[in-house]
Amino acid sequence: MATTTVAIGVAADPDPVEAAPIEIVRGNDGPLGAISVIGDSVMVGSLAFGPDLPTRLAEQGWGPIRARAGEGYSTGYFGVGTTFRASYWIDLWKSQGWDPDAVVVNFGANDAGLCQYRNETIDQCSYNAIKHLVDTIGPGKRIWWPKITRFPYNRVSMDAWNNALDRMASEHPDFHTWDWPSVMYATGNYSSDHTHLSPTGYRNRSLWMAEEITASLGRATDVGLAAPIPTSTGGVSEMVPIGPERVLDTRTDPPGRLSAGQTIEVDVSDVVPSDATAVAAYVTAAGVAGPGHLGANACTAGIESSSFTNYSTGDRGAVTITPLTDDKTFCVYSHAAADVIVDVQAAFVDDGLRFTPLPELERLIDTRDTTANRRLELPVPDGAEAVAVNITAVMGSAPGHVTAHPCLDPIPNTATLNYLPGEVIASSAYIPVSDEGTICLDSFSLVDLVVDLTGTFSESGRLAFQPATPTRMLDTRDATGGWYPIHGLEQTLEVTVAPMGAQAVTGTITLVAPMRNSHLQAWSCGDRPTNSNVNALQGRTLANFVTTGTTSDGTLCLFAINAGQTVFDTTGWWVE
Fold first, then answer.
1. What is the H or E stretch that residue 20 is in?
2. Which of 576, 572, 569, 575 is nearest to 233 (CA)?
3. What is the per-residue pLDDT for 116?
């Protein structure tokens, strides 16, 4: 369907924009689905000046779109003319079969003024007016409603309205508001009435609103079948902890720095048992030339199509489990030019230790609650010969790395987690346990650390490992795994990542360009845990290695605290 615009006069004076009603209909379908927009004269400018809000929403992936705004419009709570009531238009659209799950609302400047004439407090009137329209829109809808601005003389009514929006958001998990006053005063382009904008202001606001609306209301939908189960490689094996041991550093070792798109073969024959079929290693891309990722496998085709860590600047690493060749080697691919450092943590053999995942993670320490230290020594459960942990570095003041080890002296020349200043970043690790039943973490620079125990390894453990060809099981960017087009705010996706009978999965979870600072959680469905598996700042891409339980049919639950893209690559699973 072509775009339809109905307008009755737009004032020639662009500051402020004053206009009669405008309605725009865009009929093209978008992957995010249908959305309504309705508002007062503040919204009129976002429909009158292009690129308008419907255009910006379509760019984000919304459609079809129906938008209407008019000067003097209000929620419908007050005794104004019928066609000036938003609730009238919502009901009319419903009668015409238009009732999308996502609704954008922009009212308050007129309603806040009308509240002064009601026989109720301005706070309660504001809330009642908002609730009137929310109730009209109906249950089960996702609503986005920005806060309002008014002339400073009317600050009391503005604050009452905005507080009522916050109250509604606290009561309804799918009601979202936006601090427009802070944005408007920080960016300018507003008129003398402190409510309307200049044409440039409206164009900017349409762009910002479309991004905020998508970040709040966008959701993945189930659009297809699960990805095929990865191909297992070799037989079921058990784990032997190693070192950790550094086996390669191209900053000093041949063949030297990798060029963009280059693959290097890594020999681990000196540190793994002769019957090892797979290896767990922390691999770092150091001094990267640009954005990219690392991939690893047993030197077979397709190494560039999966990733276990992403980088943009600085040193970035993650753990991967990869099958070995008969010569006890594996290959690492770098998308951009970089040095590669490989630190081995474990090997997988016929007879070793078996894994017991914890039903709920156990927090070993959070130094934000105590005091950050360069050296941490942490007790672990009795009987554990090695442990699986998730280590998170929080807001370091300088670049650095963490080395996790069985309290060795001297400290191994290896890394378990690299961090940059001012970021929150996590890494999983397999760590041997000392004779005293402890593990140690040493930080290159002072940083707060959060350490979560996810499982233990012992001879009497429950599960053995089945290595597999690294395979992408979820990518919300292209519907791999059946979910598309975005992993929404506080949305949980159920993803098949392993075959029937698997009790746990090992793989790489990647958070791609979140629309706000975000984190992902992976677990075996049921009650959601409190930890995070990977953290990323707005627009950044970061990955982490995870070993976590699954349901009996190989399903993993993935939760995003904010909207972004999510990728999961399976490298193996655990069976009884």
1. none
2. 572
3. 87
**DSSP tag of 433:** P
Distances (CA, A) of 457 to 277, 356, 453, 544, 554: 18, 6, 12, 20, 21
How high is the pLDDT of residue 447?
A: 95
User: CB atoms < 10 A from the CB of 96, how many?
Assistant: 9
pLDDT at 8: 35
DSSP state of 83: G
Q: Which residue has the tokens 């309002």?
A: 148
Cα dist from 552 to 361, 499, 524, 557, whole Å: 19, 9, 9, 13
In 3D space, the residue among 22, 334, 78, 348 whose CA is nearest the CA of residue 202 turns out to be 22
Task: Considering only CA atoms, give the Rg of the chain.
Answer: 28
Q: Look at the pTM and tell me if it is higher than 0.85.
A: yes
Give the strand order in the sheet containing 33-39.
Answer: 4-7, 22-26, 62-69, 33-39, 102-106, 142-146, 175-178
- pLDDT score of 534: 93
SS3 114: helix
pLDDT tens for each residue of 482-531:
999 999 999 999 999 999 999 999 999 999 999 999 999 999 998 998 88
501: which DSSP letter?
Answer: T
Q: C-alpha angle with apex 56: 54 to 58, nearest 5 degrees? A: 70
Q: How many CA atoms lie within 13 A of 208 on its CB side?
A: 14
Q: Are 403 and 431 in contact (CB under 8 A)?
A: no
Beta bridge partners of 103: 36, 143
Confidence of residue 359 (pLDDT cuts 50, 70, 90): confident
Helix (H) or strand (E) holding 360: strand 354-366
Is residue 20 within 8 Å of residue 8, measured between CB atoms? yes
pLDDT of residue 372: 78
pLDDT at 45: 94
Kindly report, residue by residue over 96-128, the tens digit of the pLDDT.
999 999 999 999 999 999 998 899 999 999 999
Q: How far apart are CA 379 and CA 434, in angstroms?
A: 9
Give the whole-angstrom CA distance, residue 493 versus residue 474.
10
CA-CA distance, 419 to 314, in Å (whole number)?
A: 9
d(CA 71, CA 86): 12
Q: How far is 402 from 557, CA to CA, in rounded Å?
A: 29
Q: How would you classify the pairing of strands 329-334 and 292-297?
A: antiparallel
Strands 102-106 and 142-146, bridge-based pairing = parallel
> Which amino acid makes up residue 318?
A
The reported pLDDT for the residue numbered 191 is 85
Residues 307 and 257: their CA atoms lie apart, in Å, by 19
- Which residue type does 83 have? T
pLDDT at 17: 39
